[in-house]
Request: fold
Amino acid sequence: MPIKLILFDLDGTLVNTSEDLTHALNFALKPFGLRELEVEDTIKLVGEGITRLIEKALVNERVQQRGKAIQRFLDYYAKHLTDFSKVYPGVPETLKKLHNFKKVVISNKREYLSVKLLDDLGLLNYFNMVVGSDTTSEKKPSAVPVLYILKELHVTPEQAVIVGDSNFDIEAGKKAGIKTIAVTYGFRGKNLLLDADYMIDEFNELPSVLDRNSPKLI
Reply:
């Protein structure tokens, strides 16, 4: 059955947000006397949403203070979303080529931050819909946000594919019964992406992957 819908992860797939996330995280953690994190530290922690990010970054005995840290993170990050964040090479050009598909961003970043980030970087108009960690009752790796998108856009699982850099994206796609494509340039190593149906090293490979696998995907 032809693919009609492509779901895209945001951080690590469409946009390299690692530096801005690191600055926001360090700002959030500053009152707790913890060492400053490097980008390499941050990308190991991200993927499950802001609450889990803060919980993992705080030392165990400070987790009870996560509310204060989360608020500090949100206050800072909302003002510094795109200080250093960059769209990955080939993303706008490839999205233009995919104009015949419905396209949705499915992120574990909160919806308002996802929308603002996409808008600030000139990507928002490429998408029919943006789903964040707080749009539905559960977030990736749950299938709930994927199934919500399918229902809203009247698409069957056989007509959809998810593209992401994380095992959470692949797991969510598998649970929802849709095809999965992993990108290897993002925040997760290839060893965590082996369950994906397909794998690409650059974003601009996506159209050819869809074509090459006809009629499985298209």
Notes: Residues 5-16+85-212 form a domain with the Rossmann fold fold (CATH 3.40.50.1000). The chain has a mean pLDDT of 92. The chain has two domains: 5-16+85-212, 18-79.
